[in-house]
């Protein structure tokens, strides 16, 4: 399903070369992005892939969008101006009619959102692990502390314990986060979803995204430089490291070639 068909960045030039976000795309010759069910924005650090996702999220007013300020004084709303100067087109429904509204479930999920969820769970686990000790330290006997935790009020804290016991690692927390938030019939912007995931889980997530795009009417625009995601996703890939944001095969990307050359160099060490 194609909910967002195309997106064109602002072409206006500003005099100051350091004004954000104009400076991110300065001296780039950029045609409109044309999206598929899965589109990847590839680029190394500083390429602007996260900025681009956030601009799209702001233009579409998606859940999870972040409104950035362009300078410390806020005297000129350059971010707002840039977003208003962008242009997008929506896709068509199954009957060929132009979509006039994005599905409610659509959202922008940032790597920070995932890390925050992990941190929140870890804090709960720390709280639950030290709870009994804290009550005893305040003057309760061990028996009194146990009775409190068995009470209605203490049951809320007991839930933290159960919750923490179900969460074994950051990677598993990330996978469960995606299971909760990725639902059928929606547009999702994902910023580096591979955060905290092992290579095997990165591939698993990419395979799930492929299935959701193919079978569950989802569209994904993903910022990543993970070779495991890039090699698994059935995606159109824009290389934001190039001047014209070329559409590129995953195996030709610099980051992927770096991994290939690294393991090729150590090939003999893998031989039995």
UniProtKB/TrEMBL annotation:
<dbReference type="InterPro" id="IPR027417">
    <property type="entry name" value="P-loop_NTPase"/>
</dbReference>
<dbReference type="InterPro" id="IPR051396">
    <property type="entry name" value="Bact_Antivir_Def_Nuclease"/>
</dbReference>
<dbReference type="GO" id="GO:0016887">
    <property type="term" value="F:ATP hydrolysis activity"/>
</dbReference>
<dbReference type="InterPro" id="IPR003593">
    <property type="entry name" value="AAA+_ATPase"/>
</dbReference>
<feature type="domain" description="AAA+ ATPase">
    <location>
        <begin position="35"/>
        <end position="243"/>
    </location>
</feature>
<protein>
    <recommendedName>
        <fullName>AAA+ ATPase domain-containing protein</fullName>
    </recommendedName>
</protein>
<dbReference type="InterPro" id="IPR003959">
    <property type="entry name" value="ATPase_AAA_core"/>
</dbReference>
<dbReference type="Pfam" id="PF13304">
    <property type="entry name" value="AAA_21"/>
</dbReference>
<dbReference type="GO" id="GO:0005524">
    <property type="term" value="F:ATP binding"/>
</dbReference>
